[in-house]
Design a protein that fits this description.
This protein is of the alpha/beta class and 383 residues long. Helices cover 40% and strands 18% of the residues. The protein has helices spanning 2-16, 55-63, 85-98, 109-120, 135-143, 156-166, 190-197, 223-227, 255-264, 266-269, 276-289, 293-312, 331-343, 373-381, and strands at residues 27-29, 32-35, 38-42, 102-106, 125-130, 147-151, 172-178, 203-208, 235-239, 249-253, 323-329, 346-347, 349-351, 361-366. The strands form 3 sheets. The chain has a 7-stranded mixed β-sheet, with helices on both faces. A 4-stranded mixed β-sheet has the order 1-2-3-12, with helices on one face. The chain binds pyridoxal-5'-phosphate.
């Protein structure tokens, strides 16, 4: 029982520090959630384009389904019998949209990020990762045989020094970043990263666009589309669980990398492929993303409103996107702020250590295209 008592003590410490997490009891109703008997506007969802709450879209998709095409399981890994045609249809669609040689689809962003780096790395690999990359990327690095150095967040001068210092000592170096960052909502300078990596023949670039796919770019392909550098990113990863209102993830890359991963990537090989129906829904949404410029425009407008209001009130606001943190500092303050917003009908959640650095607890507003300007105005009054 000693081991269990230890866990209980650890949990008590978390509770005392206001850092204990619980699974919330929620009922979803379109843009709103019901919790503790209150109906609140959901300001914590990753449904950035508002597609998950779009009933008409689901109706349209259901019309395409019959008992023969509604396939709730693949029953196997893609390398055995799970490779239904719909997977390759989605990959072909992605490689055409991105203009890349190849695409590969995974079960989730977590599978992608914990699988790709271990598959392509060895002891002769140095990974240079931004200090603020997502936990799934950190786990991928830890599972790999590579050595890793984290550079200060978006500090390209430090990255440049590291590349210069180490490029000759390794077979390959992989620079890893996100395009839009999960917690600060700020952005990496992709063009500058591409320029840096092009100075060396053995440097590859890995970019995670989880928060940007569907949201950025004229066709919704992400920040790399916006920066015009899709072709220059060796591993361009994105996920379907956020703006695309589905589940799963993709990598667009060259043919060789795709084939290499099919042979080496454990989180692709040793898992049951997503249900074909899920892939069909993803494809249905992906084909419509280019036409959603109006939703992207509205999301950009309300995001700017909220960011500017925070700055005007003197909060530090690093965000340049629809992820807008209200950084308050102590965890207890963040919790009180979230409770206050929830009392007024806004479901915003506190984000605390270890997700963010100690002393930077915050309310993380994650805006979606179905939030209205007058709702943002009301939120601003409560900041
Ligand atoms: C959400 C997210 C992931 C994980 O993707 P899932 O499909 O939810 O597993 C990976 N990377 C980043 C940057 C994310 O924000």
């Amino acid at each position: 029982m000693k081991a269990i008592e230890y866990m209980q003590q650890e949990l008590q410490t978390l509770e005392a520090d206001s850092n204990l997490r619980r699974l919330p009891h929620l009922v979803h109703d379109g843009r709103t959630v019901l919790a503790d008997g209150r109906r609140m506007l959901n300001l914590s969802s990753n449904d950035y384009l508002g597609l998950a709450t779009d009933r008409r879209l689901r109706e349209e998709f259901l019309q395409t389904m019959t008992p023969d095409t509604f396939l709730p399981t693949s029953s196997s890994s893609r390398l055995l019998t799970g490779n239904f045609g719909i997977y390759e249809e989605l990959e072909t669609e992605l490689s055409i949209q991105f203009g890349t040689e190849a695409a590969l689809v995974f079960n989730s962003g977590y599978h992608a990020n914990t699988g790709i780096l271990p598959a392509v790395s060895d002891a002769q690999t140095l990974i240079l990762a931004d200090k603020l990359v997502h936990a799934s990327i950190i786990d991928g690095i830890r599972l790999s045989a590579a050595r890793c150095i984290r550079f200060r967040h978006n500090d390209l001068a430090q990255l440049e020094r590291l590349l210069k210092q180490y490029h000759a000592a390794y077979r390959q170096l992989i620079v890893v970043t996100e395009s839009l960052f999960s917690m600060d909502g700020d952005q990496a300078d992709l063009q500058a990263l591409v320029d840096l990596k092009k100075r060396y023949t053995n440097v590859l670039l890995y970019v995670d666009e989880a928060h940007a796919f569907g949201v950025r770019g004229v066709r919704g392909l992400g920040c790399a589309e916006e920066a015009g550098c899709i072709q220059d990113i060796d591993f361009l990863v994105g996920t379907f669980g956020k703006a695309a209102a589905s589940a799963g993830a993709y990598l667009v890359c060259c043919r060789t990398i795709r084939e290499y991963l099919v042979n080496r990537m454990r989180t692709l090989i040793f898992t049951t492929a997503l249900p074909p129906t899920n892939i069909a829904w993803t494809l249905f949404v992906v084909r419509r993303l280019a036409g959603m410029q109006e939703r992207r425009g509205h999301l950009a407008t309300i995001s700017r409103m909220l960011r500017e209001a925070m700055q005007a009130k003197g909060y530090p606001c690093p965000s340049v996107s629809h992820i807008v943190p209200l950084i308050v500092g102590p965890s207890a303050d963040a919790i009180l702020r979230a409770e206050m917003l929830q009392r007024h009908g806004f479901y915003a959640l506190p984000v605390r250590p270890p997700t963010v650095p100690e002393g930077t607890s915050r309310i993380r507003f994650s805006l979606t295209a179905d939030i209205q300007e007058r709702e943002i105005e009301t939120i601003i009054q409560y900041l």
